[in-house]
Amino acid sequence: MRGKFTFSVMVAGAALATGLAAPAYAEETDDIFVSVLDGEGISYPSAEDAVLVANGVCAYMSEGNSLEDAVGEVMKETGLELEQSGFFVGAAAASYCPEHAP
Q: Which of 18, 60, 69, 73 sits 20 to 30 Å CA-CA off 4?
């Protein structure tokens, strides 16, 4: 696998910088993303963690990894089932990196 699905300080910093650059938009996007997860019954430790993982999904796919690879990594990292992981990746892409959305 080309990239490792980790959430480094760089990814967290990039997410933070994005949030500071457009706080109103970022908060609205985060709220919508979390509400979509809630609507599907997908559990997560905190909203902040869910958003961090979503931004990690985008970084992972930006490295050239596929949606399928991202789903596998979300399953491995979060313990979500295949269907939930697929939904999470799709929602993350649609919310934070539409260029990678299915």
A: 18
